[in-house]
Amino acid sequence: MNVGGRLLGKEIVKLYPPCDGMQLVRLEAVAPFTCSRCGQEKKARLVAVRGDALFCNGCYGRMRASAQERGQRSQGSTDRPPTASADTRAPAVRAEDLTQVVVEELDGGLPHSVVNTGLTVEWKFSVRAEHLRHGTCPVPAEMATRAAPQEPLDLTFLRGRHRIGVLDEQKGIRLRVDGDKPFLTGLTWQPFVLPGTRVSVRWDTWRKLRLTYAPLDKPVVFGGTVVRYAYDPRIMTRELAAFDARVDRVEELVLIALRELGYLDEKGRALLPEEALVRNTIERAPSEESARKKIDAAIERLLSRGILTWEQGSIDQAAVLHYPARRGETPVPLLCYAPTLRVADREDLRNDGTGAGHGVSAHRVAGHLMRIGHLGKEASAKARAAYREDHRRAGLAGSHELPPGFTYVREHERGT
Q: What's the pLDDT tens digit per position in 251-285?
């Protein structure tokens, strides 16, 4: 197994030092696999390999920790058994160790909370970027074993909670089974559906499926994007390319690396040791001698503006990162990105662009960036040229090139 080789159909871009007969590798992109230890379906860039067995990050960390504990017990003194003490200090951690911390991956957007009554099958899931790109919806085995793959299905999209309303109806949706992962294909997701949107699904056996979004009491702006429906902030941070448009390319690379690779807490904050963040940002940056200095300077600027902050986390003996810090583990300072969260105002809703089924009065819309990266799309040459022209005309400093993951919408009139 070498860098440049392939595993699970993806190129291997990093090999970590072997440990306890296992080899941890980083792939170029997320790949699905079944963990040989916990038996769960996983989607991750980091995969541990031992012979023909594959292990997820969590099981890899637990197996390493167990092996180290066994080694410590076998080397312990016979006349002085180990004792636990509140004053016991965790061992110091080397800077090079922090470049290889292990972050447990999110769930793969699989169905959960499945209820099978015999007459209906209900489940929940959080939309992932791949669902939006490919027009798919995951389904549980309880449905896949009873539905006929060749029979087209009808879908109804509902706006739930207090007032149930039909948002859309679609026909000709089909069930497909890719290995042991059944899913619906042929869906067209509504423009307001974002990665992280929570969906409740009900299938009346042999009849229609109903997909329901739960509207928030008040729309919010999460990291610069208007969100109207219940969502998982961790998935939104990881997969939603909704950072502020910045003329500084290095700052952008730092934030992308932190959001895509960092530890995520329940509030959607992304955290990584500085050493790991710098190393991963360098891997994404154009190769040049001054890359490290530019990245360090970009981090300092982000800290000075409050976009990044320092928090305290910890790593265990298997180098698995945890936040908040856990007692008995090695404390580690972490750089933290916390997405801004506020109630959306009228201007936010006017400039949202998704519509979400709500009409607005006629008004002028200023030229603005629109996020499209999470849909797997790229800006057209026309949009890039328009951005360059308007950026120069406005006399703005920095690059006149359109930031990746966005398209540009020129000033226009909208509404009825």
A: 888 888 898 889 999 899 999 999 989 988 887 66
Alpha helices in 139-273 (DSSP H): 141-144, 233-239, 249-261
Name every residue whose Cβ is closer than 8 Å to that of residue 183 and which is 6 or more positions away in sequence: 136, 137, 138, 139, 175, 176, 177
Do residues 335 and 202 touch, judged by C-beta distance below 8 A? no
- Which of 253 and 89 is assigned the larger pLDDT? 253
SS3 of 77, please?
coil
Tokens of 395: 């006399």
Q: Are 281 and 261 in contact (CB under 8 A)?
A: no
Query: Coil, strand, or helix at residue 391?
Result: helix
335-375 pLDDT, tens digit per residue, is 999 998 999 998 888 877 665 543 333 334 445 566 676 56
Tokens of 283: 């891997």
Alpha helices in 119-158 (DSSP H): 129-134, 141-144
The strand pair at 363-365 and 406-409 is best described as unpaired
CB of 191 closer than 8 Å to CB of 132: no
Residues 6+ apart with CB under 8 A from 16: 23, 24, 25, 26, 100
Closest by CA to 372, choosing from 406, 401, 402, 410, is: 406
Question: Which residues face 366 on adjacent strands?
Answer: none
Residue 257 has phi, psi (to 5 degrees) of -60, -45
Residue with tokens 């002085």: 80
Residues whose CB falls within 8 Å of the CB of residue 27, separated by 6 or more in sequence, listed in order: 7, 8, 10, 11, 12, 13, 45, 46, 47
Neighbours of 106 (CB within 10 A): 20
For the four alpha carbons of 138, 143, 146 and 150, in that order, the dihedral sign comes to: negative
C-alpha torsion sign, points 213, 215, 216, 222: positive
Whether this model's pTM surpasses 0.70:
no
Task: Identify the pLDDT of residue 230.
Answer: 95
What does the pLDDT look like over 293-343, one tens digit per residue?
889 999 999 999 999 999 999 988 878 888 999 988 889 999 999 998 999
What is the rounded CA–CA span in Å between residue 328 and residue 282? 32
C-alpha angle with apex 78: 76 to 83, nearest 5 degrees? 60
Left if phi > 0, otherwise alpha if psi is -120 to 50, otherwise beta: which for 123? beta
Amino acid identity, position 185: T
Element (H, E) at 46: strand 41-50
CA–CA distances in Å: residue 383 to residues 48, 187, 235: 42, 27, 28
